[in-house]
## 1
Amino acid sequence: MTATIPTETAPRATAFSGAEVARIRADFPILSRTVRDGRRLVYLDSGATSQKPRAVLDAERDWYERLNAAPHRGAHALSEEATEAYESARERIAGFIGGPSNELVFTKNATEAINLVAYAFSSGPAAPERFRLGPGDEIVVTGMEHHANLIPWQELARRTGATLRWLEVTADGRLDLSGLESVVTDRTRVLAFSHQSNVLGTVNPVARLVEAARAVGALTVLDACQSVPHLPVDVATLGVDLLAFSGHKMLGPMGIGGLWGRSEILDEMPVFLTGGSMIETVTMESATYAPVPQKFEAGVPNAAQAIGLAAACDYLTDLGMDRVHAHEQMLTERLLAGLAERTWTRVIGPTDMVERGGAVAFVVDGVHSHDVGQVLDDAGVAVRVGHHCAWPLHRTMGVTATTRATVYTYTTTEEIDALLTALDQVPQIFGLHLPTGGEG
Amino acid sequence: MDLYQELILEHSKRPHRAGLREPFEAEVHHVNPTCGDEVTVRVHVTQDGNSTVLEDVSYDALGCSISVASASMMAQSVIGAPLEEASRVYEAVRTMLTSKGSDAGDEDVIGDGIALAGVAKYPARVKCALLGWMALEDALAQSGHALRAHQATQEGHRS
C-alpha cells in the first residue's frame, strides 16, 4: 500500500555492447538484406512491426513439421501434443507479462483484443451489470490513442448511446491530467488508454489513471502494444483490469496477440466471436460456454503463431527485458540529441528521456513527411511516415503527418547515425533556407 | 536523388493557379488516408460548339511535394482544355505512373508532368501523384462529364 511502483527499470541494466548487438543481429536473417540498389537495410520501423529472430521462425516451422493438429479437438496423439504445445505457449506468454495462463486470451492482434472488450459492453440486457452500457454512461480514452484504441470505443458509444470523452494531450506530448477528475467521473464506466504512445513515445502514468478509474468504479483497458515489447511489464504491478498487446511488434509472428484480463472480469465478460470450441453445451436454441480463456477463442486458433510468440518471449527473456529497455533508451537519447542539433527538425513529443520510450516522431518544417521518408528510404533507412494511425493526435499537435523512427533490441548506434546522416540531405534537396551554413 | 526533379520542387513550392475560384459546377474533397494528404478540386465546364471545355479547374492541395506538384501540373495542362484533351493527358499520366517504370511518358502529351515519371518506381507514392487527378475525375463526374472514355482503376480514395 505504501510501496511506490518503480517506473524505471533497475538502474544496473545496461545497453547492449556493439558485440552483443552484432550477435543479436545475426539471429535476424532479414537484417542482412539490402534494399534500393544494394543499400544496407537500416530498419527503424519496429513500432509498426518488428523483425523476427530465427528462433521464432524455427518454432513456427517446427509446429508444422512435428505437431500440426487442431488443439483442443480430437483425442489422437498428435492432437494431444498440439494442445499441450499450444497451452504451454499460453503459459510462457502469460508468464512474460506476469500473469497466470488462465488469464490470457489469444487474439489475432491487439486490435481484435480491444474490439473483443468493446463488444462485451454492448452485449444486450442479459449481460452482467458492469458490462451494460447505455445513455448517460461515459467511455474515456485519451487524445493520443492509436485508432485501434479509439474507433472501437466510438463504435461502442454509437451502439449503446454512451458518451465518448477523452483526456487532452499537452503541447509537449503528455497527458493533461489537470482535469482528470472532471473527465473521469461517476459516469465513467471504462477508461481505455495506451501505456506508451506509438507516436510521441510518451509513457503514460498508469498508476495515476488506474487510481482515478478505481475511485469511480470504472474498468481500465490498457493498450500495451508499444510497452510489452519494449519494457518489463508486470500485469500484477500495473493494476489495470485488461491489457491488449500484439505479437508481431515483439519479435513474434503476425496473426497472434493477446488480451490479458483479471480472471473475475474475464469470467463475467460476455463473449465476442462465437462458434466452435468456445462452447460447453449446444442445443438448437442456445449454448453455454467453456471457461476462460476458451470461451473467447472460437475457431481453430493460430497455434503456430502462438508457439512462435512464445519463442519470441523466451528470446526476449533470455536477452533480459531490462537490458532491451536500457538499449532502446540509449538509442533514443542519441536520436533525440542528433535531432536537437539539427535545428531545422522538430520533435513531436517529449524531447527528454523522462517517462519516454523509443518512438521518435519529428517534422522538418516546410517539407512533408512523405518527402522526408523518401529521402531516408533512398539511403536504405526504413521509417514510418504519415499519421501512424493516430490522426486526431496529429491534428492536436498541429501537424498533418510526421516521420517516425522506432528502435528495438537489434538497432545499432550506427543505424541512428545513418538516419541522421541521410536526413542531412533533406534541406539541400528541398532548398530549405537554413539559418546558418545552408544553401541560401 | 532522381525522384525530386527541379520541376517537381518548383511546382510544389509555387503551385500553378492554386486556390479555389468561382464559378464552379462541382467541388470534391479527396484524402489519402495513409498520410492525411488532402485536395479540394472545383471544376467549371463550358460548351464551345460541340466541344466541352474545362474553363477552370481550381484546387487547394495540402500534402507532400509529389501530390502538390502533380495537382499543379494537372491544372497547367487542363485549364482551358477540351475534355477530350484533358482525358488524353490523364490517360497518359496514369499509364506512366502505374507502369512501374516501363512507360517513360510522352512529354508532348503530359507536359511538365513528365517530371513525375520517377514516381512510377515507388508504388507507395503513385497514390500521391494521382490524388489531384482522381479528384478532378470525380468532380467532372459530379458535373455530368466523364474525364475518360473507359473506367479508371480506383487508386485514390474518396472522403
## 2
Amino acid sequence: MAYAPTSYTPGTPRSLVPDQIAHLQEASLAITASLDMEEVLRRVVAAARALLRADAVVVFGLERSRSDFPVLASEGLSHESSSSGVYAQSVEAAVGKAVAEQHTVGIEDITAAPADLRRTVGFAGREGFRSVLAAPLTAHSTRLGALALYAHEPREWSRDDAALLSLFATQVAVALQNARLYERLNKRASDLQNLFEISHLLNAFVDREPLLTSVITRLAVWMGAKYGAVALVERGEAGEAELKLRAYYGFSPDYIERANRPGGISLDPHHPTGNGPASVCVRESRPCAVGDVFLDERFAPFRQYAVQAGYLSLVAVPLSGQGHMLGCFLLYFAQRRDFGQAELKLLGAVADGVSLALDRMELNERLVQDAVESRSHQATDRLKEEFVSTVSHELRTPLTIIKGYTDLLVNEQAGTINETQHKFLLGVQRNTTRLTELVSDLLDISRLEASTSRMRRDRVDVGRVVADACSEYERVAAERGVTIDCRCGVALPTVTGDAERIAQVVNNLLSNAVKYSPSGESVTLSSERQGAEVVVTVQDRGPGIPEDAQSRLFQRFYRVDSSPTRLVGGTGLGLAIAKAIVEQHGGRIWVQSKPGEGSVFGFALPLTPAKDSSNDMPPSRPQQTTPPENVLEDGERK
Amino acid sequence: MATILVVDDEPDVVEIVRFRLEKEGHTVISAADGPTGLISAVSRHPDMVILDVMMPGMDGFEVLRRMKNDARTAQTPVIMLTAKADFSSVAQGWNMDVDNYVTKPFEVDDLAETVKNVLTFRGKLASA
C-alpha cells in the first residue's frame, strides 16, 4: 500500500463499456437540462459515483476568502459532513494538490501517510476513507474547486479512472460556471428590479418619514437584512450635531427611542457614542462596513447592542445632500457578511436616490413656505390698501364739511367778518387744503406700493403730457413772477403706461420748481428721446439742494430743511410718489443740484417696445403715431 | 330760479350746499339716501339733482343708472359729488351721462358756478 500521491497526466479513457457511456451521457444531459446548480451537481455526482464505483463523491468549492473547501455537493458522505454548511475542515493532500497543481491526483492509502502528515487526513479519516482521487475543477482558467472520489478500501486508481474523473470534472466545472453566471445574471436582474422599485418609491411620497420607512423596508428585505434604519443629521438641544433614527425596519420602537435619546448617536469623535459605524460613515462621507461585530475592534464599544438585538454584521451608507451631509442608512445582518465593492456601489446608488429625494422634499417645503408667505404678503398689501382707502374716504368727508363751512364764512355768505376773523379763517382753509392733499397723497402712495396695484398700460405721448403740464402751470407760475420755458419734443415715440400717473409726476416736478424759484426767474421744462428712453427734465434756478440731502430727497416725508416748508407747503410725499410711479413704469428718476445754482430733476421712461406698436395695443390716439426718427430729432434740437 | 335735489348721507354737506344755493335764490330739497332720492327725483320734479357717490346701501352711480332708465327722470340734469378716486376708477370706463362732476372736497363757490352753468346749458334757467 502506498501513500505517495500520484499525478495523472491528462488523457482519454482507452475503452468505455456501454454502461459507462450511458453514465457520461446522463452527466452531460444533466448539465444541459437544468440551470439549477444543485440539481446539476446532484445528477453529475450520482453518475460519477456509479461509473467509477466510488464509495463517495464530493464536489469541493473554492472561495478566495477561506482556507478550506466548502462541500457543494456529495454522495456517500455521513449526514454530518454532507449537510450544507459543513465544510471540509482540512482536506487530504490529494484535493489541495489537485487544485494547486491543476492535475488529477490519487492516493492509494491515506492511512499509510507518514505521521507528520496525519493531521491532513481529517476529512477522509473522519468519514473512514482510505483512498482518494481528486480532479481540479477549472473553467476558463478560473479555479473553481475539486471533484473527489473516495473509497473505503485502499485502491490503486487507474489511468482510465483518472481520465474519466477528469471528464466529469470538466462537466462539473462547466455546470458550476454556468450556474454562477446564471446566478450573477439573476442577481443583477433582481438588483435592477429592486433599484427600479426603490426609485419608484422615491417619487411616490410627499412626506419624509413615510418615504424613508418604505425605502428602508424594501432595502432590508432585498438585502436580506434583519434590521434597517435611516439616521438623519439633526441639531440637538445644545446645537450640537447628532444622528436621529427617523425611519426603521425590524427594530422595536423601544430600541429606536433609546437610540434617539440626546447624545444617543453623536457625531463628535470625542463623544462616547461618536465613533460607531453611522457616525464614522457620516463624518467621513463613505460607507462603513463591519463584517463581524466580534472581530472588528472598532465596533467593540457597541457589541452589547449587537448581542442584544442579535446581529453579526452591519453596513452604514452615507446620504449626502447638496453640499451637506443628510445622514446615512444602516443595514444589520444576522450573519457575518463580506460587503464587496459591487454591493457597496449598489447601496451607494440607492443612497444617491434617497439623498436626491430628501433634497427635493426640502426644496418643496421651502417653495411651499415661500408661496404661503408671498400669499400672506399679498393679503397684507390688499388689507393695507383697503384700510388706507377707507381711512382716506372717512377723512375726506369731514374735510369736505370743514372746508365747506369755512368757505361760506370766508366768502361772507353767512354775514360780514372782521379782518382778524378773515385771517384766521384763511389759516383754517390753508390747513384744510394741506390735510386734504396729505390724505390723497397717502392714498396714492399706498396704492403704488401695494403689489396688487394695477397700472393702466396705454400708449402715452409724453410730449403731450409735458405740454399740458406747461399750460396748466403757466398761470400759477405767472402769479409768482416765474416763467416756464417749455422745450418739448413735439412728436416723441410713445411709452407704455398710465398718462394720468405720468402727468402727476410732471406736475409734481413742475410745481416744485415753480414753488422754489425766486420771482423773475424761469423754469425750463424739456422732454426728448435719448436712446430707448424718453427723458423729461425740469430745471429751476432756486436755492439748490445740498449733496447729502439729494439721495434722501425721494424718501417719504423727507424735507431738505424745515424752514421753507412753512413757505411752500406740500405734504412731503410728492417726490416719493413720483419715484414710485416712475419705477412702476420701469423708469428711473434723479436730481442734479448744487446749492446756489438751482436744481435739475429728471426722469426717464422706456419707450414702448417696437412689437407693441404693431401687435398688442392699437394706438388709442392714432394722430400721434411716431414720425420717422430724423424728423423727430430735428424737432427736438434747439 | 330752480328747484335742486341734493342727495347726500352727510347732513352737513347737505347744509353747506343748501346754504350756498339758497343764496343764489334756488329752492333746495334733500334726501339722505339713494332710494329716498329716487322717490324725490320722480315726485318733486327737481330741475337738477346733485348726487353724492359714496352712500351706504345704494350708491350714487346706481341712483344715476336708475334715473337714466326712468323716462320721468332721464332728462333731469345731474351733477355728481365724488372723491376723485371714485370717479377715475369707475367713470372712465363707463360712459356716464352726467352733466358735470365736482370732486370732494369742493369749493362751495365753484359748486354754485357749476350749478349755474349746467342749468343755463340745459335751458333750465330763464336768465342769462
